[in-house]
Design a protein that fits this description.
- The complex is a heterodimer.
- Chain A is built from three helices and five strands.
- Chain A is α+β, with helices and mostly antiparallel strands.
- In chain A, the strands form two sheets. A three-stranded antiparallel sheet of chain A has the order 2-3-4. In chain A, strands 1-5 form a two-stranded antiparallel sheet.
- The two termini of chain A are 12 Å apart.
- Chain B folds into two domains: 109 residues, no CATH class; 189 residues, no CATH class.
- Chain B is built from ten helices and 18 strands.
- In chain B, helix 1 crosses helix 2, helix 4 packs parallel to helix 5 and helix 7 crosses helix 9.
- The longest helix of chain B has 16 residues.
- The mean pLDDT of chain B is 96.
- The chains are: A alpha+beta, B alpha+beta.
- The interface between A and B is medium-sized, with 14 and 15 residues.
Chain lengths: 77, 306
């Protein structure tokens, strides 16, 4: 299991939030993703280094991390 | 100001067959050439109110329609569309020369004019605010657009291409003929008896096609931009009651981006432009079957905002 993750270099997390929904621009792919507020909060926390390694190892987060990796938003480090 | 309608039929044909007709549509000038009678007749019928520029004036797009010189022309004559002297589409039957020009000019704008965020959507204006209607083929978008422009008191800005200025965020008019297809041709003939429609052309890739001349007022006011007002995703459903459903902004954003020609090309600038647009408007899903009810409901969209 990967224990260390980071925001993919080059991602600026450009986004807008409306009514609990988030649209986020993907600098790597040029796509735009429809996310929820919790996912955006997690991305910001990962960018800011405020997610503990133990949290990243939590099985409850693995599916989210894999989906964000598939979108090139996060990557193992 | 000279307009296309000031040219005699012979002078119009001579320009098309010779140096080219420099036609101003909104912010674009097209130099059109083609020695094809149905093209000249169509231009005379659909574009009489448009500004006519001089032979030396700059043109954004250079289009030429010509008959391919091959053996097939004796059996099933065809027409080619050249852009800057190059063939970019497969030839079509000669009877489709006018629709081919319309489709070709749409292609020029949607694939070249990247100082705008371009959405595949009809757009009309009322009270200074723009109603943007993105929709796939078959949704009744053009029929509704023709009715709104012909009888509903809305100013036609475009039937196909909504242009959002990247600097100002305003909707830029690009008034052109309204493309009507299949049953909608007879629907509009009956609903707008005064409308000028080009002859129906059958067996095109879109079925039977005819174009409705844009109202003269829309052409005359082509320099007047509009503030974004509403995004409406229309859907014609036979027999359905008129219904309006307010949409979340993020949903409106994603659906509108999916209908854009150049959102991805513009990158982060496209995201910023789309986000600014979404923050200025309200989005709705709109189902209708009766044009009269639709024309009554759309001016009251603000009443349905969440």
């Amino acid at each position: 299991m990967t224990l260390a993750w980071r925001i993919t270099p080059g991602q600026s997390l450009l986004h807008r939030c409306w009514d609990g929904q988030v649209v986020l621009y993907n600098d790597a792919s040029g796509a735009t993703h429809l996310l929820d507020q919790a996912t955006l909060d997690f991305l910001h926390a990962l960018r800011d280094g405020s997610v503990e390694p133990a949290e990243l190892a939590d099985p409850a987060l693995q599916d989210l991390l894999r989906r964000l990796q598939f979108l090139y938003l996060v990557q193992p480090c | 100001m000279l307009t296309v309608g000031t040219l005699s039929p012979a002078a119009l044909r001579a320009r098309l067959a010779g140096p080219g007709l420099r036609l101003r549509t909104g912010r674009f000038t097209t130099c059109l050439r083609g020695d094809i009678p149905s093209l000249a007749a169509g231009i005379a019928q659909l574009y009489p109110d448009y500004p006519l520029l001089g032979e030396q004036d700059f043109a954004d797009f250079h289009l030429q329609l010509q008959r391919p010189c091959n053996g097939r022309r004796w059996l099933r004559p065809q027409v080619d569309l050249l852009y800057d002297g190059r063939r970019v589409f497969r030839p079509l039957p000669l009877a489709q020369a006018l629709p081919m020009f319309e489709w070709g000019l749409n292609w020029c704008v949607s694939s070249r004019a990247h100082r705008y965020l371009i959405v595949h959507a009809a757009v009309l204006e009322r009270g200074g605010r723009a109603l943007v209607m993105p929709a796939p083929p078959g949704s009744g978008k053009s029929t509704l657009t023709a009715a709104l422009a012909g009888r509903g008191g809305w100013r036609l800005l475009s039937d196909e291409l909504t242009l959002i200025d990247l600097d100002s965020g305003l909707v830029v008019p690009n008034p052109r003929p309204v493309s009507l297809k299949n049953q909608s041709i007879d629907v509009i003939r009956a609903y707008l008896p005064q409308a000028v429609l080009s002859p129906a052309v059958q067996d095109t890739q879109k079925g039977t096609v005819a174009h409705m001349r844009a109202p003269a007022d829309s052409v005359a006011r082509a320099d007047e931009c509009a503030l974004p007002g509403w995004i409406v995703f229309p859907q014609y459903v036979a027999g359905a009651a008129t219904s309006i459903e307010a949409l979340p902004r993020a949903t409106t954003f994603m659906e509108l981006a999916g209908n854009s020609f150049n959102y991805s090309i513009l990158g982060a600038n496209g995201f910023h432009a789309m986000a600014r647009l979404i923050e200025q408007v309200r989005g709705f899903r709109f189902r209708y079957s009766a044009l009269d009810e639709a024309l009554d409901a759309l001016p009251r969209l603000d009443d349905f905002a969440a």
